[in-house]
Amino acid sequence: MKPIKYSISVPGSKSLMNRALLCAALASGKSTIHNVVYCDDTNYMISALQHLGVRIKQNKNSVVVYGKKGTLYSSKKIYIGNAGTVRRFLAPYANLRGNQRMSQRPITDLENAVAKLKTNSVIKITGAVSSQFISALLLFAPTLEKKVTIKVTGKLVSAPYVQMTVQVMKQFGIKVIIHGSSFIIYPQTYKPCRYTVEGDVSSATYWWALAAITGSHITVPNIPLDTLQPDAQFKNLLKKMGCVVHNNTVIGPWNHQLKPVNVNMSNYPDAVLSAAVVMVCAQGTSHIGGIDHLAYKETDRLALLRKNLTKLKSPRPVIETGGDHRFAMAFSILGLKVDNKQCVRKSYPTFWQDYTKIQQQAKRQTIVLTGMRGVGKTTYGKKLAKLYHMKFIDTDDHVMFQGDWKKFRLDEHRVIKKIYPATNTVIATGGGTLMYPRNVNLLKKHYIVLMTTPLTLIKQRLLQQTHRPALTKGATVTGELSRVWRQRKKKYYAVADNVYDCR
CA nearest 198: which of 227, 234, 167, 231? Predict the structure, then answer.
C-alpha cells in the first residue's frame, strides 16, 4: 500500500468499559457510560450483569446502568465465551462457564484468593500470571465489611492495567491505598457517575503499525494524551525503530528501513503482535522479552506467533488466528489473508470497514513534494508516480518566469488552484510554492513530503543548470542558496507531514 495521510478514531476500550460496567453495577444508583463499544467481551459483561440482576439500558453510544449497591448474585451458571475480563472480574459473584479455551486459562489462584478474602483481612497472590487477578480482587474488596490488604508476590505482569483499574475505581468514588506491592482498601460504597470510555489504544496500534510499515502519517485523535492504557508505550517502540511520533500521530520513515530493536513488552503485551509485524519489516533482527504470559491469552499467542512468523517464508501464507482477534488485525496490516475474519468482533467489530476506508484513501491519496530548488523533486516525483501507478504534475511545467517574481507567484497560485483537487497524483511544487499560506491552505489536505539533501550537493546540481533565475536581484542561484535555506527552513518543516532525506 502506498503512503497515506489519514485520521481515524478507534472504538472505545473494552478493558476500560468492562471495569466501568462492574463499578456501575456495584454502585447505588444510576450511572451513564459514554463512548461504548459493543464487542464480544463487553456484550458478555452486559449479559452477565443482567443475569446478576442489574438493570442495563443500551443506547447507540451509551449505556445506562442501575447499580445494586454490591448485591450481585445468581444461582445459575452464566456463559461468558472467551471473555477473560468477565471471567476474572465476576469470579467473586457468579458461577461462570466459558468456551473450551477459557477452561484452559488459569483461574485457580484467583478463586482461592477470593475465598480467602471473604475470611481473611490480608491475602497474598502471585503477580506472575495475570494482572486481571489483582484487578478482580481490587474491584471486589470495597464491598466487604472490613479493611483488606492485598499483597502481590513476585513481579506483577502488565502492571499498568492495575493502575487503570485503580483509576476507574477512583472515578466511581473508591480510594485504593498503595504501599509498594500492597494494596489497602477500606469498606466503601461505589458511587454512580457519568463515565466516558477512552478510545482503545490496543486498536490504535494496528494503524500506527501500518504508518510505520508504509511511511504513512496516521493520527488516532480520540485517545487522551495522559491515558494510562499501557499500549500507549507502543509509540515509544516505534520511535526507537525510526518513526516520528507527535502526540497521537505516527509518521513512518520515508524511503528508508525501520531499525531493529530489543524491547521488553511485559507491561504492554496486547501490542506484541502489532510490534511483531513491524519488526518483520525492519532491517535486522529484533528481540521481544517479558512475554511468557502470552501463553495464557485468548490463544497461546507465543506458540501461534512463532508458527505464523514461520509461515511468512512461503509465497502466499494464510495466517492462522486460532480465533484470536489480535492475530487477524495485526497480520492483515501486512496485506496477508487470515483464516478467520469474524474474530475481530471480540474487541473491534468495525475493523474491516475501517481498513477498507484506509485502502480507499490509499487509492485516492495525492502526494505533494516540496523542498529547495535542485533537491530532485521532479526526478523523484516521476519515480514515485511510476512506483504507485499515480499521475505526475510538475507545477514548473505550468508557469513561466518572465522577469517578475510577483507575477510569477500569482500565476503559480492560479496553477495550484487548478490542480489541488487532483487525486492519486504526485505533485512536484516549486521551491517557494509552500512559502505562501494561500497555497498551503489548498494543498494541506494532501500528504506533503519535504525533500532535503546537503546544500553542497544541491549547489553541484545547480551549477550544471543554467535555466534557473536567482530569487534576489544581483545574486547568483548558488550564491543565495544558504540564505534562502535559512529563510525557508522553518516554514518547510512546519507544513511537511514527512521528511525524506534523499542524499
Answer: 227
Same domain for 350 and 445, yes or no, is: no
Same domain (yes/no): 358, 397: no
Statement to judge: residues 334 and 400 lie in one domain: no
* Rounded-to-integer distance, Cα 418 and Cα 425, Å: 13
* Residue that is last in its domain, among 362, 392, 420: 362
Q: How far apart are CA 129 and CA 158, in angstroms?
A: 9
pLDDT tens profile 403-436? 788 998 999 999 999 999 999 999 999 999 999 9
d(CA 146, CA 149): 10
At residue 161's C-alpha, the angle toward residues 53 and 201, to 5°, is: 95
Contacts by residues 173-180 (CB-CB < 8 Å, ≥ 24 positions apart): 173/27, 174/23, 174/142, 176/138
What is the total count of domains within the chain? 3
The 10s digit of each residue's pLDDT in 140-186 is 999 999 999 999 998 887 888 999 999 999 999 999 999 999 999 99
Lookup result for grid cell 489473508: 337
270 belongs to the catalytic site: yes
Residue 141 covered by a domain: yes
b/e 347-371 (16+ beta carbons within 10 angstroms → b):
bbbbbeebbeebeebbeebbbbbbb
Which of 158, 179, 196 is at the close of a domain?
196
Q: What is the pTM of this model?
A: 0.91
Task: For residue 49, give the CATH number of its domain.
Answer: 3.65.10.10
The three-state secondary structure class of 143 is helix
Position 367 pLDDT exceeds 60: yes
pLDDT of residue 466: 66
- d(C-alpha 294, C-alpha 168), whole Å: 25
78 Cβ partners below 8 Å, 6+ apart? 47, 48, 51, 52, 90, 94, 95, 96, 97
Let me know whether 356 and 252 are in one domain: yes
In a domain, 4, yes or no: no
Q: Choose the catalytic residue: 40, 200, 231, 270.
A: 270
- The residue range of the domain holding 138 is 14-196
Do 236 and 207 fall into the same domain? yes
Q: Where are any strands of DSSP class E within 335-403?
A: 337-338, 367-370, 391-394
Residues 174, 206 within the same domain: no
Residue 156 one-letter amino acid:
L
206: pLDDT strictly greater than 60: yes
pLDDT at residue 473, rounded to an integer: 59
My answer on whether 429 and 489 are in the same domain is yes
Instruction: Report, as an integer, the average pLDDT of 453-465.
Output: 82
Cell of 371: 523542498
Are the beta carbons of 12 and 37 closer than 8 angstroms? yes
- 36 with 173, same domain: the answer is yes
| Rounded CA separation 5/445 (Å) | 8
